[in-house]
Amino acid sequence: MSEQLLPISAQDVYDAEEAIRGAVKRTPMEKSVTLSEITGAECWLKFEIFQFTAAYKERGALNRLLALPEDTKGVIAASAGNHAQGISYHAGRLGIPATIVMPEGTPFNKVKRTEELGARVVLTGKDFEEATKAAYELADKENLTFIHPFDDPLVMAGQGTVGLEMLQDVPDLDTLVVPIGGGGLISGVATIAKHLRPKIRIVGVQTEAFPAMKEKMDGTQLAGDNISIAEGIAVNQPGERTQNVVRQLVDEIVTVPERAIEAAIITIMEIEKVVVEGAGGIGLAAVMTHPELFQGHKVGIVLSGGNIDSRMLANAIMRGMARDGRLARLRITMMDQPGALALVTDIVANVGTNIIEMRHQREFGALSLKQTEMELVVEAKDQEHALRLVRALEEADFKVDYAKTV
């Protein structure tokens, strides 16, 4: 099928680049030496987290807003957060009233930030699909222009400028790894990338919780549970236009488990010293989960957004430490006698580990009235360090049940 039958062309992406130039950042494209060593792929990162709204979404939002007629009464959008902020920020710059409909479970930081950017926020619907329905109804009622977050040619073309910049900066990339929710980003990126390098490989990534685009392409039912840390790509119904592009230009779609996304967020934070949201980390999660697809290749990875809820980030950090063995939970059974508790804490100190949490109980769990039980959460350098503590406690005749905290 020819390129002319697609909803957008490479020229549309070039036009979008011209339209948004100066109002949207040209974000860095940098090689990660450490991630390359870890994954076996030559990893180049596109830092869209450095946009004003901390996500690529403002590219497509602005490109669409600039095409509105002068008599537009206002715009409305349905969004889990990043499209909302892109619309709000640039609509405010252009003097266009904006209303954003968000699902009821949207993280507070995204709601607050959208309101701070000047938009009216309406929280309704349990998911993106219900919020979208409500947004269409409100658009009809108030005569507002609905701006779709992904299934709009101007939005798709604007998002495609991400891929254009990636290949302008690193022309010999042979693989691009792109998050997929509704498909707007990968549609724009694939359109321009295949124009510039017809043999380049485009790999889309979805969370196992929301595999809708992969299901559409493969004709499968993967039964995602719709519970994801990657709210930005939590979409059950991808766009009709984007499906057309993905079917023709995307080489493969892979899925990754939620734990892989969590691990990628922490890996990026610890190695690159930047914070990404779930959708922003899923590209690296794919490279780490499916190494056979990427090792030996020169890979461009889109860090699509950095708007993660602070509480969620804190939980991800703690769970990441647990997975690495840097946090461990110990259940210690001891004789109920003076000095036993002090001996345990002395051993912890001598081994060089650190007590994060402690619970000492007599009433539950112990095998005998003469015994007591202590539960410790300890911080260690790594799993081997935690095991050294276990061995030291056992050598002191304590019974120890050891488990990572997750």
TrEMBL record:
Residues 329-406 form the ACT domain. InterPro entries: ACT-like_dom_sf, ACT_dom, ACT_ThrD-II-like, Ser/Thr_Dehydratase, Thr_deHydtase_catblc, TrpB-like_PALP, TrpB-like_PALP_sf. It is an enzyme of class 4 (lyase). The keyword Kinase does not apply. It catalyses: L-serine = pyruvate + NH4(+). It holds the Pfam family PALP. One of its GO terms (molecular function) is threonine deaminase activity. Its EC number is 4.3.1.19. Keywords: Lyase, Pyridoxal phosphate. Its cofactor is pyridoxal 5'-phosphate. Belongs to the serine/threonine dehydratase family. This is Threonine ammonia-lyase.
